[in-house]
């Protein structure tokens, strides 16, 4: 396919830039939306005041979970291997019931103590600053490549319109950084509403086009089936072809589902909700996005049927090229803007979440314990700026493949926080040092496994020696089989095993565990609960702005 | 001297009806225990003054949660999870819907099932307002 040029895509580019300008204005204006009495606290900047209701939470969570990279990479995977790429749909289907139970508990306990990040919850539950620091670092490390990947999605869209080079990306992100600095979480919350309207339009447009050409869906699937039959790879096709692909599919679905809500940006979206019912209703409502995701995944097959080829071998350009090919100019412009805006919303939320983690778990714990709300907010704002700058630098100066590798590692890393957070929501039985040991074991095991996975081409050639994928072959253990299992799950199993054994050992050796300052009834507390008072109110008699409960404790200790 | 330890000269935000015995009691609650101490029992809530205002709650800390009772209903949440993980069950082309193989529209149906189940569980376990 010839390299596209700007002159062929003027209409699309105009619409794209116009929509981007519109959301930029919205982003700056968002600081006036639900303007609080005290704007400079971390809860206001970093969680939007903890007051987002049903609809805004739905738009925000949808915007940050169903990212531009998702909409670009999942169809690219389906284009490459067919059925295996559809894992994104059952993964979302099983995540939501899990979330319904666990995240409402996390919301309640965070509401009582004013936690802005899940690592603070771990600190309160297990009394270990080391553990919370490790989880914060894991969260930051896992989020940063994810931000870089959104840039890859945006880059793919710009490539299709003929815009190349690092400057458009840098400008887009600089503008994003400016209004996020200004408005915090309110900016992406408002912009995600626009993104969803555009996305809905795109999906309807594509459905109409598919229904009216190429004999509809049966034509698409026949063409795709013929294509996969002709490729040398036996593993691709419209269905899962062997035991290996079944197990790979299953473990990928399970591993991704378990990790999704451990990511800091997902918990940020949840903690910004107004009450437990909002989270529950959103758990019921978010799967609507998954239906859209399923249709977009099938766009990979549509691309095969229309004979779409990637630009310069970059498979991430499949979906933007498809939009360019089958939709009329103005419609393609809207579709490309939907993906582009779908890149900046999660990038904003992820950078805010990573910044909150840094402020609460690194800065306020170790660097300046007496930080006021205004200082916290300032540190968080600057941290989110640096995180975005770092992501742009990685994309511009290093290869995109590096970011994809990092994200692979990030997924495995994030999964290791599961024992502390999920078991911690129900019981304080695990010993804090056991959790630390387990987390480190899981990290090391996961990294070693990822290092051992080569990337093999369809005909068996080894393309890359290391970090070639996420499926670890069980044959490495000596079994005579071709089955691969998601490395993250195996690392998690090692993590849990170590946690349990070391906890038993430490508890029988009577090594003192950390102090759990949470109470059972706090895990089901709700907004406006008449039987609930914030800890700080009861003990100090004052209304604190959220998380100063813990700070107030410390300064009272010092004053004796 | 006011209640906020960070800004002792600043009056507290909000309004208080009645006297709150914050820093004038002898109760010293220390959450931040030194290492090696077992978790203590919580101290008792201070006694309310002789003429308590209407909003005072003497039993502000219930001993067990009084929220949603779910129990068996929460098991229903496993149904869409189990279905989605049972790959051999839906790894087939027929029956087709609008030309789509079952593998694809079937999984989308599990998503809709997930929505239905979660909505059902939410409504059934909602707290009944007295």
Q: Key terms for this structure?
A:
heterodimer, A: 560 residues, mainly alpha, two-stranded antiparallel ribbon, two-stranded antiparallel sheet, disordered C terminus, B: 130 residues
Strand residue content of chain A:
under 5%
First-residue to last-residue Cα separation of chain A: 74 Å
Order of helices and strands of chain A: HHHHHHHHHHHHHHHHHHHHHEEEEHHH
Radius of gyration of chain B, in angstroms, nearest whole number: 27 Å
Structural class of the secondary structure composition of chain B?
mainly alpha
Strand order across the largest sheet of chain A: 1-2
Largest interface (CB within 8 Å) is between: A-B, 71 and 67 residues
Largest sheet of chain B: none
Low-pLDDT ranges of chain B: 14-28, 52-66
* Largest beta-sheet characterization of chain A: 2 strands, antiparallel
Total DSSP helices of chain A: 24
Number of strands of chain B: 0
User: What is the helical fraction of chain A, as a range of percent?
Assistant: over 70%
Shape of chain A: globular
Backbone structural class of chain A: mainly alpha
Structure report:
The complex is a heterodimer of chains A (560) and B (130). Chain A is 70% helix and 2% strand. With 560 residues, chain A is an all-alpha fold. The radius of gyration of chain A is 24 Å and the shape is globular. Chain B is mainly alpha-helical. Chain B contains 3 helices and no strands. In chain B, helix 1 (78-85) runs antiparallel to helix 3 (102-124). Chain B starts with 77 loop residues before the first helix and ends in a 6-residue tail after the last helix. Chains A and B meet through helix 5, helix 10, helix 11, helix 13 and helix 14 of A and helix 1 and helix 3 of B.
């Amino acid at each position: 396919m010839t390299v596209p040029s700007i002159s062929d895509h003027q209409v699309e580019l105009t619409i794209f830039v116009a929509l981007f300008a519109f959301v930029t204005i919205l982003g700056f204006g968002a600081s006036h939306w639900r303007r609080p009495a005290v704007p400079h606290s971390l809860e206001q900047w970093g969680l939007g005041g903890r007051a987002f209701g049903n609809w805004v939470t739905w738009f925000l969570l949808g915007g940050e979970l169903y990212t531009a990279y998702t909409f670009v990479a999942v169809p690219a995977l389906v284009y490459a291997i067919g059925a295996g790429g559809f894992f994104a749909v059952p993964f979302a289907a099983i995540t939501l019931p899990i979330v319904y139970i666990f995240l409402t508990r996390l919301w309640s306990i965070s509401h009582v103590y004013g936690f802005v990040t899940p690592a603070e919850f771990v600190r309160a539950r297990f009394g270990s600053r080391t553990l919370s620091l490790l989880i914060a670092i894991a969260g930051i490390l896992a989020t940063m490549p994810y931000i870089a990947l959104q840039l890859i999605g945006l880059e793919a869209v710009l490539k299709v319109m003929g815009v190349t080079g690092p400057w458009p990306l840098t400008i887009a992100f600089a503008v994003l950084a400016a209004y996020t600095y200004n408005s915090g979480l309110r900016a992406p919350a408002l912009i995600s509403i626009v993104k969803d309207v555009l996305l809905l339009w795109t999906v309807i447009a594509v459905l109409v086009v598919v229904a009216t050409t190429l004999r509809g869906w049966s034509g698409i699937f026949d063409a795709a089936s013929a294509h996969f039959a002709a490729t040398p790879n036996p593993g691709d096709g419209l269905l899962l072809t062997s035991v290996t692909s079944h197990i790979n599919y299953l473990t990928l679905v399970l591993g991704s589902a378990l990790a999704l809500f451990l990511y800091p940006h997902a918990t940020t979206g949840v903690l910004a909700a107004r009450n437990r019912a909002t989270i529950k209703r959103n758990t019921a409502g978010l799967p609507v996005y998954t239906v859209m995701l399923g249709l977009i995944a099938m766009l990979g097959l549509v691309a095969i049927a229309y004979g779409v080829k990637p630009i310069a071998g970059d498979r991430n350009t499949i979906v933007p090229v498809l939009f360019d090919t089958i939709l009329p100019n103005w419609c393609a412009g809207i579709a490309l803007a939907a993906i582009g805006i779908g890149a900046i919303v999660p990038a904003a939320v992820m950078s805010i979440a990573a910044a909150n983690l840094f402020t609460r778990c690194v800065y306020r714990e170790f660097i300046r314990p007496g930080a006021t709300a205004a200082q916290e907010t300032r540190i968080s704002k600057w941290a989110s700026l640096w995180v975005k700058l770092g992501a742009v630098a990685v994309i511009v100066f290093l290869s995109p493949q590096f970011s994809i590798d990092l994200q692979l590692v990030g997924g495995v890393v994030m999964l290791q926080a599961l024992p502390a957070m999920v078991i911690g929501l129900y019981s304080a039985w695990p010993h804090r040092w056991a959790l630390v040991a387990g987390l480190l074991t899981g990290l090391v095991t996961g990294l070693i496994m990822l290092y051992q996975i080569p990337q093999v081409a369809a005909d068996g050639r080894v393309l890359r020696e290391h970090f070639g994928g996420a499926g670890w072959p069980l044959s490495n253990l000596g079994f005579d089989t071709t089955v691969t299992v998601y490395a993250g799950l195996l690392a998690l199993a090692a993590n849990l095993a170590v946690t349990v054994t070391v906890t038993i050992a430490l508890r029988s050796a009577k090594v003192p565990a950390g102090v759990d300052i949470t109470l059972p009834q706090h895990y089901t507390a709700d907004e406006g609960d008449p039987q609930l008072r914030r800890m700080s109110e009861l003990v100090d008699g004052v209304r604190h702005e959220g998380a100063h409960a813990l700070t107030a404790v410390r300064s009272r200790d010092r004053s004796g | 001297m006011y209640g906020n330890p960070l800004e002792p000269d600043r009056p507290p935000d909000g309004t208080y009806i009645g006297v709150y015995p914050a820093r004038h009691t002898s109760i010293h609650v220390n959450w931040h225990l030194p290492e090696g101490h077992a978790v203590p029992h919580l101290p008792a809530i201070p006694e309310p003054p002789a003429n308590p205002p209407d909003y005072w709650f003497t039993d502000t800390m219930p001993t067990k949660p009084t929220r949603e009772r779910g129990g068996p209903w929460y098991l229903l949440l496993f149904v869409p999870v189990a279905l989605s993980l049972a790959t051999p069950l839906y790894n087939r082309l027929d029956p087709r819907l609008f030309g789509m193989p079952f593998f694809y529209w079937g999984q989308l149906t599990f998503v809709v099932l997930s929505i239905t189940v979660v909505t059902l569980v939410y409504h059934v376990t909602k707290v009944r307002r007295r």
